[in-house]
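Table S2 (text version). Query chain:
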Amino acid sequence: MSSLPEDIDPKDMPPGTKIWYYVRHSPGDNQTIDSQVAAIRRLVKEKGWLITREFKDESLSGVSTRNRKAFELMIHLARQKPRQADMLIVWEFSRFARNQVDSQFHRAELRRNGWKLLSMKDDIPKSPISPIFEALIDWKNEQFIIDLRANTKRGLRYIADQGCVPTGPVAKGYIYQGKQIGVTREGVLRMGRKPEPDPEVAPLVVTAFEMKAVGAPYEVIAQKTSLYPAKSGSWHSFFHNRVYIGEYEFDGEVFRTIYPPLVSTVLFEAVQKPLSLHFSN
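Corresponding structure-token output:
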């Protein structure tokens, strides 16, 4: 790579500059990958730059950089000497990561290796206080995730308060009925999942607990109930699942209005002792 002035603004890179770009789409983003790529390509054409490589990760979170294959490959290749391009374009700096430390680390490493970085969305003025602007953007991006998590947790807690399963599948032995739990801002009915005993499977759950309480092995229980294969690892969590006595734990709190109990507390506790002995050996 030819040497470039260290203080050059990325937007002023000369024609012929070799470019990489990285795009990522997460659920909820207003910008799709295709729209990001189209905007980047328009800018590159306008500037007379040359795209030599592209990296794309679809439907992946920006909370961290783990398990983002294209991102990981890009960072690996960007460390190679000699440098393969002059500048990396991203849609916004949150594409590095919404975690402040991760985002700042990767940008600093790229810059140390001579890369110019250009964000399509983040307007960073070229001045001595540019790092402050970037730090504020990193804080905003991380705060977005913190707020999103808090809002999501609050929404899930509301669902649980209404007697519905907030997340994950309904436990074996239950089916669910739709229950209206509110109305969205757009006026659409908001529905929750209210568990009810499955008339066909719930009796088999009770049978399994009764058999386990008297020491029946998994092979015999499986043959009688067909709930799981005999050697399935699901039996352990099944027999420890307290929803069968009407207790559903979410966010550190036990809810007793979501699952109708299928077995008595006495029967449930009778199963726990042999299970503990079995798994301690």
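Notes on Table S2: The first helix runs from residue 33 to 47. Residues 198-280 form a domain with the Hect, E3 ligase catalytic domain fold fold (CATH 3.90.1750.20).
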